[in-house]
């Protein structure tokens, strides 16, 4: 991967800073794959990212509906694959077309790992008391800085 970096997130403000720094690098066609246990902050990060991409509508967790679409700087598709348990269900989503037409943000991306494009931005969230550890691996360089507090 072209870019790989870890950040410590101590607060919601840190998540917001991270989202603000990543947002300018994103474009339609990019796939942001989010990983991490329940409650590690994937949806909150997505909400912040969307707000920096000029989405004005409410961004909520699509865990029951699987997929939400928002209109911001470009069309954004927000997926949550937690409830899918078979590969067939994942195939039925038609991810290839979704990826082409949107900026796609996927929670529980491991459920679609085989279908993710090579050009992906992977973001892993992890509880590491007293902070959350965020590991980013991206196909393109992201200018985020060394730490979120600088
Ligand atoms: N950086 C943070 N600092 C403190 N609290 C946070 C942070 N990020 C998220 N939270 C809070 O943690 C809770 C869970 O966050 P969120 O819903 O974003 O997790 P999630 O990873 O999407 O979970 P799920 O796997 O259930 O979809 C929420 O109450 C959220 O406000
Ligand atoms: Mg969520």
Description of the structure:
With 150 residues, this protein is an alpha/beta fold. Helices cover 23% and strands 29% of the residues. The protein is built from 4 helices and 7 strands. The radius of gyration is 14 Å and the shape is globular. The chain starts with a strand and ends in a 12-residue tail after the last strand. The mean pLDDT is 96.
Radius of gyration: 14 Å
Q: Note the run of SSEs as H and E.
A: EHEHEEHHEEE
Query: What is the average per-residue confidence, as pLDDT, rounded to a whole number?
Result: 96
- Catalogue the ligands: adenosine-5'-triphosphate, magnesium ion
Oligomer: single chain
CATH-scheme architecture: 3-Layer(aba) Sandwich
Short description:
This protein is of the alpha/beta class and 150 residues long.
What are the main properties of this structure?
150 residues, Rossmann fold, 23% helix, globular, binds adenosine-5'-triphosphate, binds magnesium ion
How do the strands and helices of this protein lay out in sequence?
Layout: E1 3-9, H1 12-22, E2 31-35, H2 42-52, E3 67-71, E4 75-80, H3 87-92, H4 95-101, E5 103-107, E6 121-128, E7 131-138
Parallel strand pairs: 2-5, 2-6, 4-5
Antiparallel strand pairs: 1-7, 3-4, 6-7
Helix pairs in contact: 1-2
